[in-house]
Design a protein that fits this description.
The chain is mainly α. It is built from eleven helices and no strands. Helix 7 runs antiparallel to helix 8.
């Protein structure tokens, strides 16, 4: 019975996120347009305020759910927040962004994936209506928090109750990728999910996968707003970060093996 419960939790949690986020978007839109009678143009200009509010609600709901699910496991060993692992998590996020950049460059050359690339770019431009502050608050801060609580803190952790670590990491990462509903995004989101899942499995501290996600989205945002000259420097930087990112992930795996053998 317990295994069936943990098998159902990931499905129900992902469904809850999908339904609740869409419901909240619909409610905010109806409230602004029909109750306050704000024009659609004004609504579009400041839609990021509503999106930030929606993400705040989502964070509250899923953090509460996360705490309720694992309240009996508060004594579980976890790595305390420290500068070395914080920096390592950021490096992993930058490196994943470098790999993602290479993947997108390849996808742009494949006719079968060009529509997916165009849809992905259009979606990125529409975040917060193109407002820099709104994009930072939503894509760089809020989205990593709620998505890591959901996919690592709830989905992965539930799956870990009835499957080995490698299977839980892989399946939860694929679900994370598929949830983006874009084949190009799904590929690199799955890769990021694997890296974030490894860090969470070894350290049991949600801050580290959140920082991986934060670093990846921060670079993506900067590339969207920076001039071409700065973008070239950013591209060089994230490509350089691929090797250190691989080292951090491999080091985490080795540390875990040494800890298991002690």
């Amino acid at each position: 019975m317990m295994k069936k419960r943990y098998f159902a939790i990931p499905i129900l949690a992902i469904a809850l996120h999908f339904l609740l986020s869409n419901l909240l978007y619909s409610l905010v839109e109806r409230l602004v347009l029909d109750v306050f009678h704000i024009s659609p143009q004004q609504f579009m200009n400041y839609s990021y305020c509503g999106e930030i509010l929606i993400y705040a609600v989502l964070i509250l709901v899923f953090f509460t759910l996360y705490k309720l699910l694992w309240r009996k496991e508060i004594s579980e060993p976890r790595t305390a927040t420290n500068f070395k692992d914080v920096l390592g998590s950021l490096v992993v996020g930058f490196g994943i962004c470098g790999i993602s950049g290479l993947w997108i460059m390849l996808a742009e050359q494949l006719p079968s994936l060009q529509k997916s690339v165009e849809a992905m770019n259009a979606g990125a431009e529409n975040i917060a209506g193109g407002n820099a502050f709104g994009t930072f608050m939503i894509a760089v801060i809020a989205a990593p928090i709620v998505e890591e609580i959901l996919f690592r803190g709830i989905v992965f952790r539930s799956m870990r109750k009835f499957s080995p670590a490698w299977a839980a990491i892989l399946i939860s990462s694929v679900l994370f990728g598929v949830y983006h509903l874009n084949i190009v995004q799904a590929a690199y989101a799955t890769l990021m999910g694997i890296a974030a899942g490894i860090l969470y499995e070894k350290k049991r501290n949600l801050l580290f996968p959140i920082l991986v996600h934060f670093a990846n989205n921060l670079i993506t945002m900067l590339q969207g707003f920076a001039p071409s000259e700065v973008n070239e420097l950013i591209s060089i930087f994230i490509l350089i970060m691929i090797a250190p990112a691989g080292y951090v992930v491999c080091r985490s795996l080795r540390q875990g093996k040494r800890a298991d053998s002690m």
